[in-house]
Design goal:
flat; mainly alpha
């Protein structure tokens, strides 16, 4: 029984987490052409709404099952998209770093001095 309730909570938390992620993407996309102050306000409001959604998800699973393992599974599920997003951002940063290093290396070849540069001075 324990694993069943944990799995149910994990599925519910993951579903809510994915929904929150796409809600944030929608808010950011919807506010692209607004002034910076309005963009920041929209994203802050989105994060506040997401906190309330997370609390509602935890309370709803508690009221339905009344089991600590479903709450634990929901809590773990709610952190899934945070971890997925962190891994994706790390990969994107690593790829951008590699591209920038390759670009610097190509410029270095053009700007390097000849080996016998010191001989002329």
């Amino acid at each position: 029984m324990l694993w069943k309730f944990l799995f149910i909570g994990l599925l519910w938390g993951t579903a809510v987490s994915v929904g929150n992620y796409y809600y944030l993407k929608l808010v950011v996309k919807k506010n692209e052409n607004r002034p910076p102050r309005d963009k920041i306000l929209a994203v802050v409001n989105c994060y506040i709404m997401r906190y309330f959604i997370n609390i509602a998800a935890l309370l709803s699973i508690y009221w339905i099952f009344r089991d600590i393992w479903t709450i634990a599974g929901t809590g773990i599920g709610l952190t899934v998209m945070k971890n997925v997003t962190a891994v994706l951002e790390l990969r994107r940063g690593r790829d951008e770093h590699r591209k920038a290093a390759a670009k610097r290396k190509s410029y270095r070849r053009i700007l390097d001095y000849p080996d016998d540069y010191d001989r002329y001075w």
